[in-house]
Amino acid sequence: MANKGPSYGLSREVQGKIDRKYDPELEERLVQWIIAQCPDVGSPEDGKLGFQAWLKNGVVLSHLINSLHGSDKPIKKVQHSDMAFKQMEQISQFLAAAERYGVSKTDMFQTVDLWEGKDLASVQRTLMAIASLAVTKEDGMFRGNPDWFFKKAQENRRDFSDDQIKEGKNIIGLQMGSNKGASQSGMTGYGRPRQIMS
Questions:
Q1: Measured distance CA(113)–CA(86) in Å, rounded
Q2: Three-state SS for 84?
Q3: How far apart are CA 16 and CA 192, in angstroms?
Q4: How many other C-beta atoms lie within 10 A of the C-beta of residue 66?
Q5: Closest alpha carbon to 59 in 48, 47, 71, 67
Q6: Reduced to 3 states, what is the DSSP secondary structure of residue 150?
Q7: What is the largest CA-CA distance in the chain?
Q8: In this predicted model, what pLDDT tens digit does every residue of 166-184 receive, in sequence order?
Q9: DSSP state of 148
Q10: The CA-based dihedral angle spanning residues 124, 5, 111, 147, taken in that order and rounded to the nearest 10 degrees
Q11: Distance, CA of 78 to CA of 2 (rounded, Å)
Q12: Model's pTM, two decimal places?
């Protein structure tokens, strides 16, 4: 984590909520997948801080996104550096490559979320989105167990002829309800009392 003092009040509550979103079981699955995808990256120490320290310099992330491409690697130069600026630049390159790969902006984490350890749950979400895209693409680049991640929905386009569309307008769907057995027999007009026979 970054060199800063403890938070108090509302900041502490907000950080607590963010920290509770972190999933240790998902961390294990992501680590297994990253090691299967890039066997030469080593493995992290156990726990949240070990996971953050493993990904913090951006090298593992860069190898991961490069392994999902063929010969055309999105990150040409993976830099091993102890300088904070270089590490953050490496993370930014990973995020840009992930966006080009197809990850939506809403699934992306910010560089400081990982580098300062502010929101590691968002880092997990981004890695999940990348893994799901890799499983969905079925281009042979995904390594690991495809059952670890869900497949994204594919477009299932249907083309109907004009005759089929006209026939569909004649059918009353069940969503519109049914009027079988409905009648107004025995009902009186508004404002009149109901007549009860005894």
A1: 16
A2: helix
A3: 62
A4: 18
A5: 67
A6: coil
A7: 95
A8: 887 777 666 666 666 666 6
A9: G
A10: -10
A11: 23
A12: 0.70
